[in-house]
Amino acid sequence: MKQASKGLGAVLENFAPPVVFLALTVTFIVAAYGYPPSSRAVPLLVCYTLLVLIALDIVSRTTTRTGQFVRKFLNPASSLPGLPKSEEDEEHPSWHREFLAVAWVAAFTAGVMLVGILPSVPVYLAAYMIVEGRKKPLFSILIAAAVVLFLWVSFEQILSISLYRGMLFED
Amino acid sequence: MRGMFGAAVACLLTAAPVMAADFPAKNIEFVIPVSPGGGFDTYVRAIAPIMQRHLPQSVNIVPDNVPAAGGARGAAQVFRAKADGYTIGIFNIPGMLVPQIRGDSGLQYDLTKMTWLGSLGYDSYGIGVASSSPYKTVADLKALGRPVKFTASGPSSTAYSTTMIATDMLGIPREMISGYKGSNDYVLAVIRGDGDAVVGALPVMEKFVESGELRIIGTFDETSLVPGAQNAVELGHPELSKLTLGRLVAGPPNLPPEIAKTLSESLMAAMKDRDMVKWSKDSGIEIEPGDAAAAKANLESQFNFYTQYNKYLGPAN
Amino acid sequence: MLDVALTAAGNVFTFQSLLFLTIGMLIGLVVGVVPGMGGTTALAVFGPMTVGLDPYAALSLAGGLMGAVSFGGSVTSILINLPGGAPNAATCLDGYPLAQQGKAGLALGASASASSVGGVIGVFTLLTVIPISKKIVLAFGPSEFFLLAVLGLVTIAACAPGKMLRAMIVGGVGLLFAFVGFDNVNGGTRFTFGIEHLWEGIPLAPAMIGLFAFPEMIELSAKGGSIAKDKGKVGLTGTLDGVWASFKYWKTLLRGSLIGTLVGAIPGVGGTVAAFLAYFSTVQASKDPKSFGKGNIEGVIAPEAANNAKDGGNLIPTLAFGIPGTAEMAVLLGVLVLHGMEPGPTMIMHHEAEIYGLILTLTLSSVLASVIGLMMVRPLAMITRLDAHILVPAVIAISFVGAYANNSLAGDIVLSFVFGVIGYLLIRFDYPRLPLVIALVLGELAERSFDQAMMISSGSWSIFVLRPISALLLVMIVAALTFPMLRTVLRREKAVEEFS
């Protein structure tokens, strides 16, 4: 069951997205006023429209009558935490698993930025398959090698596109 | 120890001329600061295979597109490359000179310090109007009694500054319609009726004249003879001829003279090569061979001209 | 005209030309599949290699490549919800759900046939339109481009049935992202917040890769399993059904093809808007709009036909005036110039036979690439059965490389990652992602055209009403906005009536 369905967690999860959008829009508005009028006209128009839309989104997430009205006309299929879900929607994985999934990609990104593509790819692939997938090490290494070979042949050799060497090795 | 040291020094001392005589010993990179398909891209791709035939040793000249930042990235790459002759680049003058004069922040090159090797030619500019429009001379435009609408690319582009400078020299009150992407686009815009007139490179406009859609009413060349158009002298402003678009080739600063000579001679030979001449005729793209000295002189003259007209170059980025 | 066409055919059906056609097709198929790579890069690399060969070799290579890339891009859209290029994004909407239901074969089959037919119709339309191609290009100026971009943005609302408000918010954010970078009309850079990498704006390919590849992969990674929810159901016999489906739903096929050609002719926006408009109009024309987004085969047929038909349309401004609407067309022009054909209004005048040759190879490629693609459906569909723990890192690794390879800028890798996180958050909190892509594609054009239109009309808004095509587009925009809402209201009333 979703553990965030109760109390503060539910409120946060419900209103966090529009608040984030709001913060982004406000940042752009503030930045826009630093530019000359002709440059900021269209962006500001978009920003102000966004403010209205975000306000509607916030309202639609409340349980007031206006909220229900907005939901009916603009968002009938959206899911809201805490409301009964339709059968088609699936359970979200736990926060822990999501974080782990993102962390793997983040680590790979960091690896690529530091030492480049060609070393990082096989390490990431093999490590992921062995640790997360519990695959046999030999199998993992073979697949990792195959993928990096494919990349090397197609990009470096055939397309003559040199693959990033990483911040430590680029001149 | 001393013997080895002496041997090493001796090697280094003799290495320099030995290196020059052996040049080129590996592939040469020809940097193109625009994306593939851009006008300058084609020049390099056409001339590279021909130029490599004229080098003393057989190596490849490999075109390398380095787009981004309006060409600044490619220019910086050449500027910062090792001065060993294995990196050269093509430069749009004054296009790439303008950011330097204007004082754009973060620029990592200084064109006045590059080793200039030659030029592939210069385009002159002119004024065109739609062939369906009633204007036949520049005087007609001035007589409109309202600002004349000129189409051009963005405020940081050569077309834009050229239009502004030319119209001021000629005394035409103008309003700019900017932001078009590319010369074919902003010339087409005037044919469509978005604007009244356009300042464009003559080779581009001449194609539209051939297809019957454009009329050239003025050229900024001192001697050109386009039927129906007054040239710079006839318009009373010979200094208009300074408004050109040059395609110059250069290597990094402090290139050893021997190596620079090899490169510029093979470039010159390539431009005069029969195959190049044929390509030039077929594609309608003119090549006027210019040597290293001419290129350097042009750069300096353009640098002085645009420094003088700094205020037209748009705000610094 | 016939003798020119025959000359062209004579030159295309030679061993050398056909060889290059095949090479181009294979390259196009492979490149199309790699996320982030498209015809542009491939043509840029291989086009110059044809220097010195006869022009028909280059044209065959180019035609083969361009005709095949769209289908390659469709493959990843269907199998892993990653559009090969912006025009392929609409195929994800129903293609991926089909793959999840184990019906990848069906989707791929329909995609193959729809692509072929769409491509042929697009080329055929191009041929009939060449004589008036200049008039067409001249008829579309900044005011029309602006309204067209708005029309494209409005279809955002229809992308996610039932989530209109959230779609519009995401679209708005996409527009803000589109404004980042250098302002072409007024000069100066905006919204870069001091990050030099953003000077040229947010590049589309890395952003799209991040938005689409990573969220799916992260989700798979967290949940485990494979893309096809029920492995046993991965039906490959569905492929032939898929191929026939395009002909069964011939009205959708025709609609998609025509929209693709017409809209594809508009420089700059063509492909993406065409695919989405085709999808959108199919949804509206359908008796069961709610079934879209969940695996309705018509939702694959329409955009697939459109994004191949657009290849014909794309050529119109390129050939008529040498105005490349897309980066791919710019590279094509470069290749043509290399072979002594001067881009611009005189090209068709001087090189009619070569142009017809190009068109012919494009047609052949459209059809043949699909045939080759069909032969590969079995192994391709198997990807949906692959265990997540093998698929996820492989896709992510290859996607990153694709993102980097576009411009060889390390910053694009970080950008991809950032958009990956954004994309995951969006699907996690139930916001649609496609509007962000559409807005990113159209935002620059919309703003630039608007500013230009205002300069042309000296500030008067009447320009949008006085020009006939603009007025027509305005009507279409209003219709696109109101039609879905009206329909929902009308159906609700009908439902209420039925129950009372």
Any descriptors?
heterotrimer, A: 171 residues, mainly alpha, 6 helices, 69% helix, flat, C: 500 residues, 23 helices, 2 strands, globular
**Structural class, from secondary structure content of chain C?**
mainly alpha
Oligomerization state: heterotrimer
Helicity of chain C, as a percent range: over 70%
Number of helices of chain B: 11
Helix count of chain C, per DSSP? 23
Specify the overall morphology of chain C: globular
End-to-end C-alpha gap of chain B: 56 Å
Mean pLDDT across the residues of chain C is 82
* Distance, first to last CA of chain C: 66 Å
For the CA atoms, what is the radius of gyration of chain C? Answer: 22 Å
Residue share in β-strands of chain C: under 5%
Based on DSSP secondary structure assignment, what is the total number of beta strands of chain B?
9
Low-confidence stretches of chain C: none
Average pLDDT of chain B, to the nearest integer? 85
Helix and strand content put the structural class of chain B at: alpha/beta
Low-confidence stretches of chain B: none
Question: In which order are the strands of the major sheet of chain C placed?
Answer: 1-2
Approximate shape of chain B = globular
Note the main sheet of chain B.
9 strands, mixed
Tell me roughly what share of residues is in helical segments of chain B: 40-55%
**Strand/helix succession of chain B:** HEHEHEHEHEHEHEHEEHHH
